[in-house]
Amino acid sequence: MLDHLKKYRIVLASNSPRRRELLKGLGLDFEVRTLEGIDESYPSSLKGEEIPMYICGQKAKAYLPTMADDELIITADTIVYCDGEVLGKPFDDADAARMLRQLSGKAHQVITGVSIITKQIHRVFATTSLVEFDNLSEDDIEYYVSHFHPTDKAGAYGIQEWIGYIGVVRLEGSFYNVMGLPVQRLYKELATIE
Q1: I want to staple 136 with a disulfide (CB 3.0 to 4.6 A). Which of 66, 92, 140, 181 is the partner?
Q2: What is the tens place of the pLDDT at every residue in 111-155?
Q3: Residues spanned by the domain of 94
Q4: Rounded Cα–Cα distance for residues 96 and 88 (Å)
């Protein structure tokens, strides 16, 4: 499938091992390339889906100057959006515990923005999933943070890890989006690229 993309060298512009695993699941040959120092800030006027779409678009623009004519580059950015606040990657374990306390007993949105660029195409889209956590005890939070150190994850959790097993009571939308890459939507978008 997606044989029409063989004319491109596909690049995943992400350090995330989860995104690599998910993109590999689509059966694509790709390489991973990352740039240091990409600004991931965004205007404070942006809300919800606008935020990760803006950030992944900025990431894509950073690759344009060195992009080869036959490359197709995929960038992504995931945020956790709770009570109108963006919960990004925690600064440390204490910040991770704070975020998990905020998510405890509530529903929140996980939004991933994805950009697909070639020399001729620039597409950006977002996918939103709704996740609801049960009430998490302090022991649950302490155990998860001390054993999994989720400082590399938006919202301080990985749904595919222990906290997802014991904490998630409801999910609406794409599970893989919550992991960091909405592969079903990405597949549909890639299928329409010439």
Answers
A1: 140
A2: 999 999 999 999 999 999 999 999 999 999 999 999 999 999 999
A3: 3-191
A4: 10
- Candidate list 29, 70, 77, 93, residue with the active-site label: 77
| CATH number of the domain encompassing residue 97 | 3.90.950.10
For the chain, what is the domain count?
1
User: Which has the closest alpha carbon to 37: 68, 6, 15, 67?
Assistant: 15
For 59-97, what is each residue's pLDDT tens digit?
A: 999 999 999 999 999 999 999 999 989 999 999 999 999
3-state per-residue secondary structure call for the chain: CCHHHHHCEEEECCCCHHHHHHHHCCCCCEEECCCCCCCCCCCCCCCCCHHHHHHHHHHHHHHHHHCCCCEEEEEEEEEEEECCEEECCCCCHHHHHHHHHHHCCCEEEEEEEEEEECCCCEEEEEEEEEEEECCCCHHHHHHHHHHHCCCCCHHHCCCCCHHHHHHEEEEECCHHHHHCCCHHHHHHHHHCCC
Residue 190: Cβ-neighbour burial (10 angstroms; 0-12, 13-18, 19+): buried
